[in-house]
Amino acid sequence: MDSYSLIYFVKPEGAISDWEYFWYQIPYGAPGILTFVVGLFLSYFAFQKYRNSKEDDGFFHLNLTISFISFGCVGLVLTTRAWIQDVHTLVMWNDLLYFLVAPLAPTAFYLAYHMTGKQSKLLLYYSYVCWFASFVLYLGVILGKGFETTVFEFPFGKYPRGSAFVRPWGILAPLGYFLLILPSFIKHYQYIRKHYHLTLFHGVNLLFLLTTLNAPSILGFKVYPGGFFLFIPMLLVAYGVFRSDFFDVNELLFQKNGMFYFLFALLSFVLIFISFGVSFGLSPNAYESAKWYPWGIPPVLSVFGAVFLSIIVAGANPSARINQLCAFALILTGFYVIQSVPLKLNISYVVQLRISQMTFVAFAFAPSIMVRLVFEAIGQKSPVWLKGIDILCLSAAILAPSPYLFVGYYDYPWSRVHHGGPAELLVGTNGAIALLLVLFTFLRNKGYINFASKWIIGSFLLSALLLLAALLPSHGIPIYPIADFQFIPAILLGYAVLRHGALSLEGRTIQLSQRLANLGLITMAIAAILYFPLIREQYGVGESAFHLTMIVLPLVLFNYLVVYIMSRPLAEELDISYFLLDLEKQKADEEREKALIAQDKAEEAREESEKLLLNILPYKVAQELKSKGSVNPVRFDNATVLFTDFKGFTKVAEGMDEQSLIEELDACFTQFDEIILRNNLEKLKTIGDSYMCAGGLPVENRTNAIDACLAALEIQSFMNQLKEIKTALNLPFWELRLGIHTGPVVAGVVGRFKFAYDIWGDTVNTASRMESGGETGKINVSKETYELVKYFFETEYRGKIHGKNKGDLDMYFVHRLRPRYSQDPDGKAPNQYFREVYARISRGANIRWKKES
């Protein structure tokens, strides 16, 4: 077996480019970025509290919001001092950021004043003094005299000196802490302890102490500024203030989807960083060695496969703890393999080292997350010994950016491999302990673990074995790091999650997000095709494809990730709506089952009562009677009354038995009922063999005379057909007289127990005279009705009839519809043209008829 010498990492002497300087200084500035992110995160929660607080508490939370932003920006200022080499650029950024840093002192003193129960008025007055100093600082920055170009140079960065505008502000804060805040806290300690959680007390003190520890570096002493670690006291302060609202870790991370959004925010940054880093940071020289192919393919597959599965799993159900743990485990696996890809390329070793250090900060927590996932999958509580693994994980994460993670590298034929230091051994030892403990738990409980959970445990064990095998090449044993093949356990885990139901996967969410994501996917595919010829001029075919893959794939995943974040609230609302609907439906079904028999009986009784009432009264009148208990008489100025009577009824009835007589009469009147219903008329009553109905009531209309004539044609047609049938069978038959008149009537309900809807007026008498004066088999109408229907029907004037107290009355026969309005030769059925004119009259149109020649 070949041996390879260890190459130690040494920072070069002399001037280096700004880009190289940035990579060398990354570990020094990274804690400041963390402080800035934590400050923004906590300021958001503080602002939410401010919006929902009362006036007094609201002012406290507003100051807390500003304070978190300011302390977070202190970390960002220190990061610029660690990462920016050019002094003028550094001074410019410090001037800009101090606009946000300046409120730190006055808001912090107000917080301390509030914590003492507003008893130490000196703290309030001192906050006003600090505001004045802040405005002096603003003035200096605006005048371009905030910071001087004279700097103190340290290994951890360059520190510009503050001008006379900045120094008073820098002196007042630490001076006020030791002279005012500390004595006030000691004096009012019992009050603070009674009204506030002690973490708030310790957090505020630590904020001032760490901020004060910036002073040595500003004064020229080689002391790493404590402000880099302000995120620690900020978390303590936040816990002391918000613990009862949303700082329960389980609620924050899972019930409020905090883990979901944290993971995706982290992933978004990493994916964009990868895409832009490859696009702008890799030159054709990076592919000069042959190590990128084929050795670079497995880690690329592992990274993007793990990230894609994590997006699908996390987006499926962000409130489910097991989904988030699974997604977190996949992401951490992807983080580990990310650092393997640059090692296959011909780029500066410091870039490779820093990328590995950044990824190991996150990957250090992999044993803790994987163990939790396993115990969640088998349905058991996390064991006590997991706290020990958590402490080891935290220690490894803290050491990851330090020189103790890797101390050099081996240059193998397949890639460079970092030589592991104490921090890497700590990560490996932690993983090995977690592997053994999980394996022991599995063997002890394997009889109770379901099939899907066994797949989850199996994928964890395989992933851990691959990672432990990576320790061999990192210590000089020339074996290809098979940890690059992490896509294998990732696929196994995804199989367990998505196919065997170990985790919840909402189909609606997947479908909705998939359709939205595909739109972006098509756009990026087109862009990649257009971009390929451009890079083909600089790279070979294989290098171009690899380069393009490293640019486009992170953007594809970022597209999926953003779509899931944007569509998730909508999907959650849909899920909640469906759940509530299902819940209400279930409750309704239960109630309906309990009361089904009683409800059916009540419904039957109600339907029978309603049916009976509607058989007696018109619908509108029935509704009025039910709502008011009575019906008011109503006058109708234009109603049409129709009477019928059978000629020779008595003679024919004498030759029939009672049952046959009733059945025959019922058959005729039933047909009459259906005919008048079709023609918008209202049946009023039958008296023996007489039938009476009317149109234009109880709802007024303009077509009642036409309706009555149409109904009369149908009735006479029916009676004529019945006569033909009876004659052919040599049976007795009835002939019908039918009379119609139009005029004013009064309608109402009479009776208390056996009530009836009836009409009164001379119109009723005239209609009766039209019937009695008519001829059998024909329709006899008055002149008033004739005037309303003459343009639609063929009529015949047939003379006068004497009416009691009315003199002679003109009468007309209605024979049929005019041909232009009829669809049949007999003129009984109206055509489409008739219906159009009829509809216009119904809507209130006045029809102007042409005079027929």
Automatic annotation (TrEMBL):
Ranges that cross the membrane: 28-47, 59-84, 96-113, 125-144, 164-186, 198-221, 227-246, 258-280, 292-313, 325-343, 355-375, 384-405, 425-443, 455-472, 478-496, 516-534, 546-566
A single MF term (Gene Ontology): nucleotide binding
Keywords linked to the UniProt accession: Coiled coil, Lyase, Membrane, Nucleotide-binding, Transmembrane, Transmembrane helix
Coiled-coil regions listed: 580-615
Cellular component GO terms held in the UniProt record: membrane
Localization of this protein: Membrane
GO biological process: cyclic nucleotide biosynthetic process; intracellular signal transduction
Pfam families hit by this protein: Guanylate_cyc (PF00211)
Record-annotated Guanylate cyclase domain positions: 640-771
Record's keyword annotation contains Transport: no
Family stated for the protein in its record: Belongs to the adenylyl cyclase class-4/guanylyl cyclase family.
Matches recorded under PANTHER family: GUANYLATE CYCLASE (PTHR11920:SF335), GUANYLYL CYCLASE (PTHR11920)
Protein name: Adenylate/guanylate cyclase domain-containing protein
Gene source species: Leptospira kemamanensis
